[in-house]
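Q: Structure tokens for this one, please.
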Amino acid sequence: MSDLRMGAIESQFADIIWNNEPISSADLAKQSAERLNWKKTTSYTVLKRLCDKGIFQNKKGIVTSILSREDFYSMQSEKFVEEAFHGSLPAFLAAFTARKSLTPEEVAELRRLVEEYKEEN
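A: Here is the predicted structure, written as tokens:
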């Protein structure tokens, strides 16, 4: 699971799996053809790549996730903060809020998350 990155099209493909799992590889190829205009071979190639990354598995033609959507995006976010901000969440938030204002609801949610974290630790 060294490279957890996915491009926009791979993410759409992954969403088909996450929204329909367990899904047969044949049905996945069919849905990919309908939604992404992919050939069957493209679906199988991308599926193999995502399986090699440790995100999904294809056992006996049935595709399921190894990582949930939430776990995948959580790990991807952690990696981004680590690489771009040396692991500093405050530095990430400072950069984020320098260009985008937080709504009062977002501020309240962040406060709630921090309080929850304090209570658990």
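A few notes: The domain at 8-69 is CATH 1.10.10.10 (Arc Repressor Mutant, subunit A). DSSP finds six helices and three strands in the chain.
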